[in-house]
Amino acid sequence: QVQLVESGGGSVQDGGSLRLSCAASGRTFSINAMGWFRQAPGQEREFVAAISRIGDVAYYADSVKGRFTISRDNAKNTVDLQMNSLKPEDTAVYYCAARQTAVTSTENAYPYWGQGTQVTVSS
């Protein structure tokens, strides 16, 4: 099993920045791709970004391209999401996810999930 714990959420104003971090534990050697998803109130969870095991491939949702950057440190078993130029529409609970095979933006392809961290962007 793999356990994921997110941190770094909070409240910022429009245009601000936040950095989310996700720490993995357990059978971390089995992890390949890691990703971030988010769920806004009353909406379904959606893909944000994902990264391959060695970081050579990264996918982003169109809504965050150019503003968010995903990165990982395999020595520390962490994946980060640097979020710049935040907008009120970025307000959501952000979830970290992991899977044992290739990177993908498909939510149901990720078997391991964290509990989520709240990000609130005020105008």
Task: Give a structural overview.
It is built from no helices and eleven strands. The chain is mainly beta and 123 residues long. The protein has strands spanning 2-7, 10-13, 18-26, 34-39, 46-51, 58-60, 68-73, 78-83, 92-98, 112-113, 117-122. It starts with a strand and ends with a strand. Strands 2, 4, 5, 6, 9, 10 and 11 form a seven-stranded mixed sheet that branches. Strands 1-3-8-7 form a four-stranded antiparallel sheet, with no helix packed on it. 0% of the residues lie in helices and 50% in strands.
Secondary-structure map with pairings?
Blueprint: E1 2-7, E2 10-13, E3 18-26, E4 34-39, E5 46-51, E6 58-60, E7 68-73, E8 78-83, E9 92-98, E10 112-113, E11 117-122
What's the Cα radius of gyration?
A: 13 Å
The major sheet is characterized as: 7 strands, mixed
As a percent range, the share of strand residues is over 45%
- Unreliable residue stretches: none
> What structural category do the secondary elements indicate?
mainly beta
**Overall average residue pLDDT:** 97
Give the % helix. under 10%
| Contiguous helical run count | 0
What shape does the CA trace take? globular
Euclidean distance between termini CA atoms: 40 Å
**What is the β-strand count?**
11
- SSE sequence, one letter per element: EEEEEEEEEEE
